[in-house]
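Hey team,

Filing this mostly as a record. A colleague (T.K.) asked me to run one chain through the structure pipeline before their review meeting, and I want the input and output archived in the tracker in case anyone asks later how it was produced. No errors, nothing strange. Just documentation.

Input sequence:
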Amino acid sequence: VQLQASGGGLVQTGGSLRLSCAASGRTFSSGVMGWFRQAPGKEREFVAAISTGSARTHYALQGRFTISRDNAKNTAYLQMNTLKPDDTAVYYCAARNRRIIFSAMDQAEQYDYWGQGTLVTVSS
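Output structure:
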């Protein structure tokens, strides 16, 4: 199984980016796909996750980010709007091919597969 994250780049404060996470090797039709990020010198933190079956979503913070998925393409997306310098980080996608309780969707250890990360840099 491979997860390929893409879409990162350099953007100015207030700008938008859309990250993609394409999974290959197996489908995640009844699991979870999520996004985590790690800023320089900081711990990895949860950003958002989506159940690939019910499309139920879980966010660390509501408002600026939206997670979605296209099961036909085995791909998850993270739309990021109104970006701030504090959003600068390497963004990692993760996946799990089993159901998970809602309260555990933000726990990195619950995910079985990880992508290589894509760097998002927000300039001030």
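Quick notes for T.K.: The first strand starts at residue 2 and ends at 6. The mean pLDDT is 94.
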